[in-house]
Amino acid sequence: MIGLIIAIVIFNFIASKTNKQLSMNQVVHIWTFTVAFQATFDVFIEFKYKAYWYFDKEIDWNGLLPHILLVPAANIIFLNFYPFKTKIIKQAFYILFFTIVILGYEMITLLPKPWGYFHYGWWELWHAALLDPILLLILLGYYKWILRLERKACLQSNKKDEAK
Q1: Which of 15, 26, 106, 159 could make an SS bond with 73 (beta carbons 3.0 to 4.6 A apart)?
Q2: Residue 127 in 3-state DSSP?
Q3: 18 within 8 A of 73, measured Cβ to Cβ
Q4: Distance of alpha carbon 45 from its chain centroid, rounded?
């Protein structure tokens, strides 16, 4: 639990202090999407298939902390530093780098209590290595969709203002 609390403080501090790219609306969207997406994913992988779990195998309040306070902050950090206006090779390397960082952090979470809080069932690190880039691409797709919706909303608002 100590490791989780330290990580929550550090990740959220970094996410809030370094965010120069995302508007508050985008942060709320990403936060909400992350919680919903991870909760949906974990219903199957964590609870149905017992691949991994937080703290213990049963549903508990402590297991909500990484879902609500840790992973969304990590996604905000990922998006804030993502090199959007660069060549695709640089973007691919960023995803690879961030995946390595995530895997390193996951290894730390596997430490014994009080530092670690994550446990593997049949899940192994290579599962995460294969899945994390896909999840990051889904996050990027969602973020780009939000940007398109915001642009559309601004255009509609401007048209309404011009009509007045």
Answers
A1: 15
A2: helix
A3: no
A4: 17
CA distance 55 to 117: 5
* Alpha-carbon gap, residue 93 to 131, rounded angstroms: 16
User: Which pair of structure tokens corresponds to residue 147?
Assistant: 């940007």
Indicate whether 137 pLDDT > 80. Answer: yes
Residue 157: per-residue pLDDT = 80
- Residues 18-34: tens digit of each pLDDT: 999 999 999 999 999 99
Evaluate the CA torsion angle 125, 32, 54, 121 in order and state its sign.
negative
| CA pair distance 86, 152, nearest whole angstrom | 24
Residue whose structure tokens are 């804030």: 80
pLDDT over 70 percentage in the chain: 99
Distance CA 128, CA 106 (A): 9
